[in-house]
Amino acid sequence: MYRYDEFDHAFVAARVEQFKDQVERRLSGELTEDQFKPLRLMNGVYLQLHAYMLRVAVPYGTLSGRQMRKLGHIARTYDRGYGHFTTRQNIQYNWPALADIPKILDELAEVEMHAMQTSGNCIRNVTADHFSGVAADEVADPRPFAEILRQWSSLHPEFSYLPRKFKIAVTGAEHDRAAIQTHDIGLHLKKNEAGELGFAVYVGGGQGRTPMVAKKIRDFLPAEDLLSYTTAIVRVYNLHGRRDNKYKARIKILVHETGVEELTRQIEAEWQALKESDLKLPQGDIDAIMTYFRPPVLPERPEGWGALAAAKKADAGFAAWVDQNVTPHKNPDYGVVTISLKPIGGIPGDASAEQMELVADIAEKYSQDEIRVSHEQNLVLPHVALADLHAVYELLLADGLATANAGLITDIIACPGLDYCALANARSIPVAQRISERFGAAERQAEIGELKIKISGCINACGHHHVGHIGILGVEKKGEELYQITLGGSADEITTVGEITGRGFSSEEVVDAIEKIVDTYLGLRTSKEENFLAAYRRVGAAPFKEALYGPVSRAA
Amino acid sequence: MTIKVLTANRLTDGEVVWYGADGQWRETIEGVSIARDQEAAAELEAAGKAAMGANLVVDANLIDVEDRGGELYPLRLRERIRISGPTIDFEPRRKPAASAA
């Protein structure tokens, strides 16, 4: 894992001191709210419905046991005993007092963490495939490049006041688990025929009120050009992105209004001026960062094969969990464990202080001291020996963390919604809970198969509803919550924006509507192997609309 | 007109507060100062601005409420949730009972 160098320590410490002073001046009245608000936002501090909220960055979703234990400690000491893992691989605390936040940042700095650039119109925390470095299908670990981008973008003077926020995601596998095409810049790390590393570069993806799928502007950018090319993109955006209208300020609108070809031309022209500058990455620097992400030396554990088979035979619950939540590791003696933060009827992404501490302990003992946060609001133990899976399962089970539902209908993404969020128009969490309860039976989930439901409580789409196989968007209509349903979205290597089915549903109706959609799918799929998305892509919206709204009269 | 009350978040900890009839900010809506006409609403608005200026609260807003048999009922769900807190069982439960197996 990456360790802060002297420069990292110094700038994080300086920033904590600076913010401490700003908070003191705010509390003493020396700074007004108008003066303070942009400063607090640069440090991840929002004001929500009931309290302040602090969003802490988890760079590319990677944590050590010590860091996770600190997150639990903060939850218990300064908050109400829990935290919420987000769709950007971050963690949010819902109840910190403003006066305590400098102390929290001090504690985070102790474990090389911070809350910078988790909000505001800057380059946000760079996200990555949560299976980076371990997935059997990966070409190369993209996190060294995410770290290079983190260093480059942190407090970048030119890019601290962009027209709007700017999100970058990286993946190193053909199968995209990082939703790169829904980001301002999406980077797909791959190798060319000569075996050299480079990136396919996507620009202009985003969700929110104007969802757009990113456009590929380069098929292979040599790795050494990562920073010069990214700088060129962000510079063109900074110059020409709209500042007159908040809703048209993201780079996706610039791509749309300028046209991909013309914008690519501008980026390439800018890049020509930068290509040979000091932004060109020396191989030595890339290698130095890569050293931090070298895969751990994993002892051979071949005894796990037999042990696993025997344990599965003896324990049906364990077998179901292994089948659903453990995915192949590059090393066949090991597995990648998804810890579901979606207990049936629970709150997606929430974890208690005790749960965080337990995960920290397990990671230290059984997963090479490494944990990941996924954008699907789950946690991941990346290196668990097959021989240790049963022990890990038993520990997780005792604290409600062994729900065997990764990728199933109850593995729902949901934003905090109107239960917490000052921007929301409707609640998300209770809808997720009711859907989870409706479909919670293990046999039923297994029968339905892979199905991603994503719920947002407003058009800002933090719950990624546009790219849910089934998306749910909460709106407010005449003082009531109303839920619009979209179908057919996806955020993988074939990213699509879901289509709205028609009129929305009341809070009372929405779970029944989801059930009708699911039953319709079950009735029309060609076989169990045809998952919901594949079936939807084959038949289109019509059968689902008919199930929801009744037959459409066909005029002759 | 609908009646209005003044609400905000306390500066130090973000706690939801209402402006009381006694001129103090309180943590419950009971005993809140109620504006039943334009003039009273303007006074409340001024009190909100003054309190923000004095750095006691942030985000002070007048909200619409109905008097339902003596109980104040905000018209927007958002404001009702600000009174009740999250509508979900949000604080961590105790550890679940050990598996029956």
Automatic annotation (TrEMBL), chain A:
<dbReference type="Pfam" id="PF01077">
    <property type="entry name" value="NIR_SIR"/>
</dbReference>
<dbReference type="InterPro" id="IPR051329">
    <property type="entry name" value="NIR_SIR_4Fe-4S"/>
</dbReference>
<keyword id="KW-0004">4Fe-4S</keyword>
<keyword id="KW-0479">Metal-binding</keyword>
<keyword id="KW-0411">Iron-sulfur</keyword>
<keyword id="KW-0408">Iron</keyword>
<feature type="domain" description="Nitrite/Sulfite reductase ferredoxin-like">
    <location>
        <begin position="52"/>
        <end position="111"/>
    </location>
</feature>
<feature type="domain" description="Nitrite/sulphite reductase 4Fe-4S">
    <location>
        <begin position="411"/>
        <end position="547"/>
    </location>
</feature>
<protein>
    <submittedName>
        <fullName>Sulfite reductase</fullName>
    </submittedName>
</protein>
<dbReference type="Pfam" id="PF03460">
    <property type="entry name" value="NIR_SIR_ferr"/>
</dbReference>
<dbReference type="GO" id="GO:0051539">
    <property type="term" value="F:4 iron, 4 sulfur cluster binding"/>
</dbReference>
<dbReference type="GO" id="GO:0016491">
    <property type="term" value="F:oxidoreductase activity"/>
</dbReference>
<dbReference type="GO" id="GO:0046872">
    <property type="term" value="F:metal ion binding"/>
</dbReference>
<feature type="domain" description="Nitrite/Sulfite reductase ferredoxin-like">
    <location>
        <begin position="345"/>
        <end position="398"/>
    </location>
</feature>
<dbReference type="InterPro" id="IPR006067">
    <property type="entry name" value="NO2/SO3_Rdtase_4Fe4S_dom"/>
</dbReference>
<keyword id="KW-0349">Heme</keyword>
<dbReference type="InterPro" id="IPR036136">
    <property type="entry name" value="Nit/Sulf_reduc_fer-like_dom_sf"/>
</dbReference>
<dbReference type="InterPro" id="IPR005117">
    <property type="entry name" value="NiRdtase/SiRdtase_haem-b_fer"/>
</dbReference>
<feature type="domain" description="Nitrite/sulphite reductase 4Fe-4S">
    <location>
        <begin position="119"/>
        <end position="272"/>
    </location>
</feature>
<dbReference type="GO" id="GO:0020037">
    <property type="term" value="F:heme binding"/>
</dbReference>
<dbReference type="InterPro" id="IPR045854">
    <property type="entry name" value="NO2/SO3_Rdtase_4Fe4S_sf"/>
</dbReference>
<keyword id="KW-0560">Oxidoreductase</keyword>
From TrEMBL, chain B:
<dbReference type="InterPro" id="IPR021270">
    <property type="entry name" value="DUF2849"/>
</dbReference>
<dbReference type="Pfam" id="PF11011">
    <property type="entry name" value="DUF2849"/>
</dbReference>
<protein>
    <submittedName>
        <fullName>Nitrite reductase</fullName>
    </submittedName>
</protein>
